[in-house]
């Protein structure tokens, strides 16, 4: 982009996505303001090495991420590290949605900019608290389930919306309250308050995913509930298990027929 051209959101989002250093990525994401020009028609070939990642944490299979006691400082740090890694991935996912999918309404890009900025703030809060415990992001192993699904759905906007914000990220709505309570019971009130902020904002993020999923279903003339099942099977989405935070899911825009389908799919075979 030449100096004579105004800054354009989607190109800057791609540049932020390519950054490997977490602190630099957070700063670049928070610098993306609502006054930026948005060009829905801009397209480019996908660069190599997306997303930019730091050398650590080491990425391992989910089964190899160790479980630690919440009643030790190391155990709480390990949990906070896992949450920070989710938020780091969530920054990347929102930035990816902004640059990757062209020719969409301008509101789509504005919505995912809001998500990216809030995820960056979540990462900041978690990382600062992690450091107060004597640890740093990268000190523990992590897994990459969120970005793996992003890879599977990168050529299909409808699948991306169905299986990332509405499936994997929506699991956070279910997981946050019990984790928050465990942190509070362990005496870490500061961490519990961070979880309160994250749950509040994530309801809005999942609502954005729901809104644009339904919009995309309308564009393709498919039934949102029926087509979700097709996409989940096609892309081998994880089978969700309860208990579910139905109140938060309703607040995030899940319809009753979707919740009924979720509860039915989660029943033991």
What does this entry show, briefly?
The protein is 63% helix and 0% strand. It has 269 residues and is mainly α. The chain has a single domain, classed as Ferritin (Up-down Bundle).
What does this structure look like?
It contains eleven helices and no strands. With 269 residues, the chain is mainly alpha-helical. It has one domain (9-46, 73-266): Ferritin (Up-down Bundle). The longest helix has 32 residues, at 189-220. The radius of gyration is 18 Å and the shape is globular. The model has no long low-confidence stretch (mean pLDDT 92).
Question: Would you spell out the secondary-structure blueprint of this structure?
Answer:
Blueprint: H1 9-18, H2 22-30, H3 73-100, H4 106-132, H5 145-152, H6 157-168, H7 171-185, H8 189-220, H9 224-234, H10 246-251, H11 256-266
Helix pairs in contact: 1-2, 1-3, 2-4, 3-4, 4-8, 5-6, 6-8, 7-8
What's the helical proportion of residues? 55-70%
Mean pLDDT: 92
Beta strand count: 0
Count of domains: 1
Q: What is the SS-derived class?
A: mainly alpha
Counting DSSP H or I runs of 4 or more residues, the number of helices is 11
SSE series: HHHHHHHHHHH
Examine the secondary-structure arrangement and name the CATH architecture. Up-down Bundle
CATH level-1 class: Mainly Alpha
CATH-assigned fold name? Ferritin
Gyration radius (Cα, Å) is 18 Å
Q: Can you summarize the main beta sheet?
A: none
Q: Give the amount of beta strand, in percent.
A: under 5%
What would you call the shape? globular
Low-pLDDT residue intervals, each spanning 5 or more residues? none
